[in-house]
Amino acid sequence: ETSQTKRPLLLLEPLPEPTLKTLSEHFTIHPFTSMDELAKIASGIQAIATGGSYGVAPEVMAALPDLKIIAVNGVGLDRIDVAEAKRRNIHVTVTTDISTNDVADMTMLLLLALKRNLKSNEQFLLDGQWADGKLPPLAHSLNGRRLGIAGFGRIGQAVARRAEASNMEVAYFNPHPRTGSPLTFEPDLGKLASWADVLVITLPATPETKHIINADILEALGKDGVLINTARGSVIDEDALLAALKNRTIAGAGLDVFQNEPKINPAFLSLENVVLQPHQASATVETRLAMGQNIIDNLLAFFSGKPLLTPVC
Ligand code: 8YV
Fold first, then answer.
1. Residue 101 CB–ligand 1 contact under 6 Å
2. Where do the D-isomer specific 2-hydroxyacid dehydrogenase NAD-binding domain residues begin and end (predicted)?
């Protein structure tokens, strides 16, 4: 292609340089700046590349009469009106199963950091207390503990494999039992929370799962229980979580996602019984390059009339 024939592509999320370099060989990339600027190029835009946590704002989708495909750099669809995309015959693709293992790793990282006092032990060492002959408080083992997984899709199943490798007992909550899984299916989230020592959230963010983790669930999880969230912030009632953390209704939480990212509720920042990450579960070089390649492959397939690799619609 020449610059005259390259299709314009609206970029809503920063992508790794190698991904952008390859994309720019086939598309004229327009990073989104404002709706006013978008209006100047809107009629030509046929493709969007965006992130799972960025999505596509309704006003952006509405402003693009020629939009034909949205390639998502992630698997979360909570920020995209898929029904509206279908109505307008806009294809949507996600990076299916590319980030599964990294997100499951982050889930276990948050759990282990929390249970093994990673942050406070390092501070203990940095403060010189170990050198002074002191010892930090004992931590808690995963061995033999009960891990409940809320949401048993690809990521939840990958977490289960890791938890079983840590000799944990695993059960799961899901809208329906996972055929072929030998693990215990618990259709009642409250009962799962009561049973579990650790509750991991890997549910998709939907209207049905909004605030599904509420004060009652946290109460059921109990004073020795810990909560891990690598799904979306919206699945947790954050006011209830903050109260439960402050009042020790639960022992602690490991959180990679929050409501109102990146300006999260400052109350999280003063808590000692949390391990926090800035939505980094899939953010490894290897996985983000593979996700970027998926975006490229889907876009090139679409515009050459070939089947999409990982379509949602
Ligand atoms: C990315 C994600 O951090 O898969 C998702 O939906 O949240 C993550 O993989 C996100 O897509 C970046 O916007």
1. no
2. 109-281
